[in-house]
């Protein structure tokens, strides 16, 4: 029988339950997918805690990779196709599920299922951050928080391919080593160095044109203070909590700054754009230009421990659930 992680109330990791489920047959526009691997992302904790609302009871997880077992009417995929996906509806933490075919992305044979589960969300996030948010040019220098994380490792590698230098922040020397190994040119250990001061030193007092901040509450001020005149703060995550309201006059005083809070869903909503970004990601992966290290693997039934590790900062780089 198929199983899934579900939760009936918001709260800590302990609210998650490993339960048997009935999957059924796909309807029009749907497929039944058998997962081979499932992604573990910090955003999953936002749904579990209620920061992102979900109708309860609910499944969990938005990223998976596997094989289509059955298709409903009006679907372009076929049974046996390898696919990956990221996005709603919730429910990726499962051995099997019914999935709208419109959200699926064909997975090339050269990309392993666990690699896909570790990179579809992170890779597409990296793709839109580097290729859609700001017109970066070779020679630019940007600031990236959490440079040793799953997005951080892909981001620094991809940025290097574009000729963009990355100043990355990390919490420890261990993570600094990881960031450097992935192409981070300058690493700031924020637990013992002031980020904005180091950024000004590295950039000869100018600051950076773009800061990519997935941490939020504890880093947004140092992000603002690191920007060059007319720079852009990209708040794409809130690992430490939501960003407090930013007074517009502060943006003027700091150099006529800009702030955006993008969401991946709005950059892959258009099928053609999603295909373009996924194609670029998959090309880099199959050619070996992007390396993916999966440092944590869990059984789906161990999702409680996986979330505890994630929220405690014990995870380095990508994590997946093996099915």
From TrEMBL:
Q: Name one GO molecular function term.
A: mRNA 3'-UTR AU-rich region binding
The keyword Manganese is annotated on this UniProt entry: no
Xref: Pfam families: ADH_N (PF08240), ADH_zinc_N (PF00107)
Q: Which residues form the Enoyl reductase (ER) domain?
A: 11-321
Instruction: Provide this UniProt record's keywords sorted from A to Z.
Output: NADP, Oxidoreductase
Checking InterPro entries in the record gives: ADH-like_C (IPR013149), ADH-like_N (IPR013154), ER (IPR020843), GroES-like_sf (IPR011032), NAD(P)-bd_dom_sf (IPR036291), QOR-like (IPR047618), Quin_OxRdtase/zeta-crystal_CS (IPR002364)
Q: Name one GO cellular component term.
A: cytosol
Q: Which PANTHER family match?
A: QUINONE OXIDOREDUCTASE PIG3-RELATED (PTHR48106), QUINONE OXIDOREDUCTASE-RELATED (PTHR48106:SF13)
Query: What name has this protein been given in UniProt?
Result: NADPH2:quinone reductase
